Amino acid sequence: MAEKDGRGGEEYHGAACYANTQVALAVRATPPTIRQPMPELPEVETTLRGVSPHLIRHRITEVIVRDKRLRWPVPDAMHDLEGQRITTGERRAKYMLFHTAKGTLLLHLGMSGSLRIVPPDTPWRKHDHFALTMDTGKQLRLHDPRRFGAALLIEGDPQQHKLLCDLGPEPLGPDFTASHLKQACSGKTAAIKLVIMDAHVVVGVGNIYASEALFMAGIDPRKPAGKVSLPRLEKLVAAIREVLAASIEMGGTTLRDFLNEKGEPGYFKQTLRVYDRAGEPCRTCGTKVKKIVLGQRSTFFCPKCQK
Ligand SMILES: [Zn+2]
Asked: Taking the alpha carbons of 91, 92, 98, 99 in that order, is the dihedral positive or negative?
């Protein structure tokens, strides 16, 4: 079931604070109950891919701020983007970055945010807080009932911005290696699951993905990080990549949803191995999946397969 929203860490300090505030419900096997899913790295990547064709190389004709009270106030300078062309777009951790000559638009979906592309005469929904009208005649709208999302304008190099500068490597990028992880784990008595969910070590490994990857690698989530051998960390790195890449791939099939009437992003019905399966048989050995709380987060594992 849903964990309580640990609305802690309000500091303006990278994705580490988000790691503590996740309601990790994005990936469900069965049944497909609709609950509030929190956008994780795969959903953000899918969102970026979905909206990019409507934004990249197009000009912003109007910036609309309907409610500036997001996680941080939407700056008045955001209107400087009017008339600017978006040259490129990229994702860093769970931030989407859209570059223009006047600065970089940073968007974050927070806990409940979503983007959609609509004709400008589409009726506004409650919680549509921010929008860009593009010279394509379409509008990008940020919808965010809980307002943990963000829309900021960054001048200068966005990688040096305080939200981004301390982040660890991308899990699917070349810098996330077993030796990097070994170094991060070295001498640590903290549980391995907490280390891989630390955005200073690697970004984007949310609660679901951490449980799933540790199962795939056969590692007990409670194991002290410093005691996990390099070969096992190699397996873990591969598992993290695999579970995230699989989710992104599945998200690709839902891209059209960004343009449909409701505009809800697609969430991935990946078959879960252990997450949210407490008491159910392990898919490998049949042992009952166990649920514990680790670092205030629900943690699922097979006591037989994971050592
Ligand atoms: Zn098992």
From this structure: negative
